[in-house]
Amino acid sequence: MQKYKIITYGCQMNVHESEKAAGILKTLGYEPCLDEADADLLLYNTCCIRDNAEKRAIGNIGAAKKYKKANRNLIIAVMGCMTQQEKAGESLRSRLPFVDIVIGTNNLDKLGEYITQFTEARKPVIAIDDNENPAINENLPIYRTSGTNAWINIMYGCNNFCTYCIVPYVRGRERSRHPAAVIDEFKAMLDAGYKEITLLGQNVNSYGNDIGLKHGFVDLLEKLASFSGDHRIRFMTSHPKDFSRDLIDVIAGSKNICNNIHLPVQSGSDKILKLMNRHYTRADYLDIIDQIRAKIPNCGITSDIMVGFPYEEEADFLDTLDLVERVKYSGAFTFVYSVRKGTPAAAMPQIDPLIAKDRIMRLVALQNKITKEVSKTYEGRTCRVLCEDMAPKHDNLVCGRTDCGRMVTFSGNIGDIGKFFDVEIESSKSASLFGKVIN
Ligand code: 5AD
Ligand code: SF4
Questions:
Q1: Which of 6, 71, 106, 234 could be a cystine partner for 198, CB 3.0 to 4.6 Å?
Q2: DSSP conformational letter for 52
Q3: Residue 177: CB within 6 Å of ligand 2?
Q4: Which residue from 320, 319, 241, 17 is spatially nearest to 144, judged by alpha carbons?
Q5: What is the DSSP string of 11-46?
């Protein structure tokens, strides 16, 4: 039996796309292996959202040369966002000539054909279609590897063109799946016993706009929430400019939809938000937060925040800190702005990297303090937790998340994975909670 290993970089979209690649490889008769050295096929699923993500992928693909030396028949393939950048196919092959197959973001469904083509001709295969209206393939096999959680793509691509972001260039325009296709997949996941289902899209709030639906996401979520059973629904990512009030009501009114919203703000300064082409102001954003807090009191709200964007001055950064202080995110992903070639912000004057470094440290310190404070508020409370896995490095501790998205560690064993527990939170440390099962 031929063996494969997929090495995935980047976001949940990529994690899920690797599951699709794995589904195709399984139909070809491949089986997964843990160690690169044992593989007959290494597939790198890349990310190019920031320079460091890209460098890490390139470095690791470069290091794969040694496996090829040890096994001349090893196939090395590269897929994901990096391949879809301008001229990336050729430049990847010229920098890493031992790569055998390069697949664009719209070519994944033909992975099997490319592998056959390569094994027959032993000539490099570069297959990168452009992003002009690619069809959605509803028939891809999926080999799910994310434990108790099943990912479901509801849409692909992004229309927003935030001025810093490469995603619209490498993933193309928004394409929504038909609601019936999403609902069928959702039902199949429930039948398969998944306890948590996460809906994925770059901007789930504009789901359906491209196929003529009026309240696409709210209607879809309401429909999915109407299925009875002991399971829960998450979704990501929301864009504040399209976040509707109806959505808050649907979440508040359903026990199956998690009280957990990832709502990236990026910056707390109106000047910077405008330069980023985000289409909302700080006041708009804070207004949404107030409404969420009023209707979903225990909602875990998380964010993506960037510092060091062109023209960011100390006053703009202080606006970001102030917003973070007001919102009290339960957690945040924080980034230093990274220049992406071909995006509008790449042509703007860049700020001193030392200033950006100082700001990210201050932002991280503030968010860490808030994360800790929010964690403390859980102490003494009882939370419903879905046991997801064994706790790292422990035989008798398990971990899982609360409805609001907080990680909790508690006593348990492997048989508890996939079950819900009421856990009384006894203590906390940074973002982690520790508790005991009370049912
Ligand atoms: N530099 C830094 N961070 C970026 N992100 C997107 N593009 C860039 C970039 N060029 C961040 C945003 C986005 C998250 C997925 O990645 O915060 O929400
Ligand atoms: Fe990038 Fe903005 Fe689209 Fe998110 S919404 S993927 S940040 S362009």
A1: 234
A2: H
A3: no
A4: 17
A5: SHHHHHHHHHHHHHHHHTT-EE-S-GGG-SEEEEEE
What backbone torsions phi and psi does residue 412 show, to the nearest 5 degrees? 170, 180
Token couple for 303: 């964010």
Q: For a pocket test of ligand 2, which of 13, 160, 175 has the largest count of ligand atoms closer than 8 A to its C-beta?
A: 160
The alpha carbon of 6 is separated from its chain's Cα centroid by a whole number of angstroms, namely 17
Contact 319, 269 (CB under 8 A): yes
Query: DSSP string of 62-117?
Result: HHTHHHHHH-TT-EEEEEEGGGGSTTHHHHHHHHSTT--EEE-TT-GGGHHHHHHH
Do residues 41 and 25 touch, judged by C-beta distance below 8 A?
yes
For ligand 1, the distance from its centroid to the CA atom of residue 164, given in whole angstroms, is 7
237 prior amide bond cis, ω within 30? yes
User: Which residue is associated with the tokens 């001025």?
Assistant: 163
Q: Is the CB of 160 under 6 A from ligand 2?
A: yes
Report whether 223 contacts 186 (CB < 8 A): no
CB-neighbour burial class of residue 274 (10 A; exposed 0-12, middle 13-18, buried 19+): middle
Q: Are 92 and 118 in contact (CB under 8 A)?
A: no
Burial class (CB in 10 A: 0-12, 13-18, 19+), 69: exposed
* Tens of each residue's pLDDT in the chain, 439 residues: 999 999 999 999 999 999 999 999 999 999 999 999 999 999 999 999 999 999 999 999 999 999 999 999 999 999 999 999 887 877 888 889 999 999 999 999 999 999 999 999 999 999 999 888 788 888 899 999 878 999 999 999 999 999 999 999 999 999 999 999 999 999 999 999 999 999 999 999 999 999 999 999 999 999 999 999 999 999 999 999 999 999 999 999 999 999 999 999 999 999 999 999 999 999 999 999 999 999 999 899 999 999 999 999 999 999 999 999 999 999 999 999 999 999 999 999 999 999 999 999 999 999 999 999 999 999 999 999 999 999 988 889 999 999 999 999 999 999 999 999 999 999 999 999 999 999 7
pTM: 0.95
